[in-house]
Amino acid sequence: MNFLEVQFSLRGRTLPADHGYALYSAVKQVIQTSEILPNMDNVPADVRLCSIAGVPDRNGMIYLNRGSRMRLRCPADQVQLWYRLLQNQVLDIRGHLIRLVQPRLTLPQPSNTLKSRLVTFKLEAIDHAEVPYYFLESCKRGLERLEIDAQALIDSTPEGDLARRTLQVKNKKILGYGVVVEGLSAEDSLKLQWHGLGGRQHFGCGWFYPAREEFDAA
Asked: Coil, helix or strand for 206?
């Protein structure tokens, strides 16, 4: 699969820290009201959205900065469509308005280590103390299904705790973890960036990026 990433700079000030579902809903609304996509009413399965990075205020909000981007990955033959659809659009993210400006195209780069801020799987009826074990088993099976030979690990926070995170979808909170995948070949790195791991990928989950991006975005 040949795919590209579209990155939009943002005009706005703040967003809810947990905004993956709200961002998806806002993009879906643009699709439903656009004449560019008259026969489409949802985000296609082969389009991935990433949650927007910012500076957290530790009170459920983030402040947007110069490095904040709205990012979308799609098949290469769809790039012009999404570029035209979203350029200069104003998205309402739970009452926070952001304008998408100055779109840029980039080719995802391979890296032997990739990270994802949040990966989720369905882990029902499992004792809380054993959730990390079953979560890593799910990661392992996901990599095997993609025929990727690499090791998945649960990431840690700057404080040294497990990077346990949640995603709110309507009135439901979904548990997940930050994930690091090490030992990737160049081919498998691009494969993982395209396919991701786990579910809820329209909401920003399972989006993998080279670990060095965290330093570049500071």
From this structure: coil
Last residue of a domain, one of 106, 138, 167: 106
- Summarised one tens digit per residue, pLDDT across range 64-114 is 999 999 999 999 999 999 999 999 999 999 999 999 999 999 999 999 999
Q: How far apart are CA 119 and CA 13, in angstroms?
A: 27
In whole angstroms, what is the distance from residue 179 CA to residue 154 CA? Answer: 5
Phi first, then psi: what are they for 199, rounded to 5°? -105, -175
**Measured between alpha carbons, how far is 127 from 156 in angstroms, rounded to an integer?**
21
Q: Write down the pLDDT at residue 65.
A: 94
- The length of the chain in residues reads 218
- Its domain, for residue 29, covers 3-106
Same domain? 97 vs 174: no
CA distances from 163 to 2, 81, 127, 154, 168 (A): 31, 36, 18, 7, 16
| CA pair distance 146, 84, nearest whole angstrom | 32
Q: What is the pLDDT of residue 127?
A: 62
> Hey, which residues does 162 pair with through a beta bridge?
156
Tokens at residue 39, please?
């026969």
Which residues is 9 bridged to in the sheet?
69, 101
Residue 107 CB neighbours (<10 A):
10
Tell me how far apart the alpha carbons of residues 74 and 191 are, in angstroms, rounded to a whole number.
Answer: 13
- For residue 192, pLDDT over 50 is answered with yes
Per-residue pLDDT for 218 more than 50? no
